[in-house]
Hints:
By secondary structure, the chain is of the alpha/beta class. The chain has two domains: 5-133, NAD(P)-binding Rossmann-like Domain (Rossmann fold); 140-318 and 353-371, Dihydrodipicolinate Reductase, domain 2 (2-Layer Sandwich). It has 13 helices and 14 strands. It has a nine-stranded mixed sheet with strand order 13-12-11-10-6-9-8-7-14. Helix 11 (322-337) packs across helix 12. The radius of gyration is 20 Å and the shape is globular.
Amino acid sequence: MKKKLRLGMIGGGKGAFIGAVHRLCARMDDKYEFVAGCLSSTPDKAIASANEIGLDLSRSYPDYKTMAIEEAKRDDGIEVVSIVTPNHMHADPAIEFLNKGIHVICDKPMTSTMEDANKLTKIVSESKAHFFLTHNYSGYPVIREMKHLIKNGELGKLRIVKGSYLQGWLGSKEESTGENKQAEWRTDPKRSGTAGAVGDIGSHTMHLIEFLTGEKLKSVAADLNTFVEGRKLDDDASILIRMTNNIKGNLSISQVATGEENNFKISIYGERGALHWHQENPNYATLCKLGFANQIITRGGSMFKEGSLANTRIPPGHPEGYLEAFAQIYSDAADVILNKQNKSDLLDILPNVEDGLHIMKFINACVDSSANNSNWTDLSTIK
């Protein structure tokens, strides 16, 4: 009988957008069963949330410490925990479960502070359990095909990268309405961290560029803005970046771009070609080769290589999207935990604690740069 991993969850109760996404995507490929949770820090809400999704109330816990202790005692205790809380509550639960030998799948960004990021990185290095981050855009089949093409030299030496992630949902002071909990915590420095839009969607943008190119960010010159009066964190940013191997680029990040929904675009330019991808139409990418007509790469199409085909679930022309990409992270993590044959290949592409630490340095470097007249700031100065 096929083994399913026993999964628990911290956070993700009633009113939480991302918790339901994690539960749905974890179960998409039949590799997990959801058996336990601390779905809210409020006991009554935790029980109500457990009832709503049919979780056994004997395994609905009032706090994450109790859950870690009790689940570690059980012969049928959880093997993996998903942490889907606001950023300030990522590190401590992750450390608690890692110390019990329980694998962790954590929402991004990894933590809210560099202190927590460094502490968590140390614990992961000492633990036998795995730690994964859900930078879910790296799970798209077309993105993985683009990575394959870049690695194989289709674009030649890389020169320029451009990332644009534009949303409009925070164009007014949603956090003050009392009706938008997502806006409330994402704009609260105590829960979100030192950055707003840069930490929320800028982190995705920078991670995906590094994932595609295989190169690392070295320094930033950032201009962070807060357009909505009274807001405590940035809601817009323009960022120049320098990467390894002399790659230059820029990022445009905004959550106050009126009319935008989830307009995330990536372009990678090399000396012989370029690749372009748009998240709102994720089953396609455009390959531009010097001296040739542009080619459209379709998910699962004739250009796809064996490794990328393994990430598709249905035939070309039947759209896959955000949920399938998210599920791919869970599926790959399960294969690593279960020690499947492709474990080493998956460890090379799954977002991990080192990626998380690096992106935390990116976030803090942007904040520091903006506070210093947008001066260039090296990530090596962020500790």
